[in-house]
Design goal:
The chain contains four helices and four strands, in the order αββααββα. By secondary structure, the protein is of the alpha+beta class. The termini are far apart. The mean pLDDT is 85.
Length: 131
């Protein structure tokens, strides 16, 4: 008999879920969404000098979400030099592919949520009183 997932187990599994995309150079890039602890560790690696540099932080977050490029495992960066190495390895094409995949996924989730909410309103007699 299989055990039901607890809400917290579902959240953890979702946070660790890896997705893949292909960049303009044909590389398969595997990535995952960064959790709160990942972001905290990344800001520590970025350091205070770069923390207010929004473009750099954005690129660092995209690069840090990558777990593999083709067969090369991408380690999570712990120093600024490692962030720069990941950014250099990905290049514009890799960063753009990851950004597009993350944004597309967020848009799909938002549409699905809106459709669920619309479905709830459509089936709720209080939301649609008879005229």
């Amino acid at each position: 008999m299989s055990e039901a997932k607890t809400p917290s187990a579902s959240i953890i599994a979702s946070a660790r879920k890896e997705e893949s995309t292909t960049d303009a150079n044909g590389r398969k890039i595997t990535f995952r969404r960064l959790g709160a602890l990942d972001r905290a560790r990344l800001f520590k690696a970025i350091g205070p000098a770069q923390a207010s540099n929004a473009p750099y932080v954005g690129m660092a977050m995209l690069a840090a979400s990558v777990t593999q490029v083709d067969e090369w495992p991408a380690p999570f960066p712990t120093r600024d030099s490692e962030i720069e190495m990941l950014i250099a390895r990905l290049g514009d094409e890799g960063l753009e592919a990851v950004a597009a995949a993350l944004v597309t996924d967020e848009i799909v989730k938002a549409i699905e949520e809106a459709e669920r909410e619309q479905g709830k309103k459509g089936s709720d007699p209080a939301a649609n009183p008879a005229a």
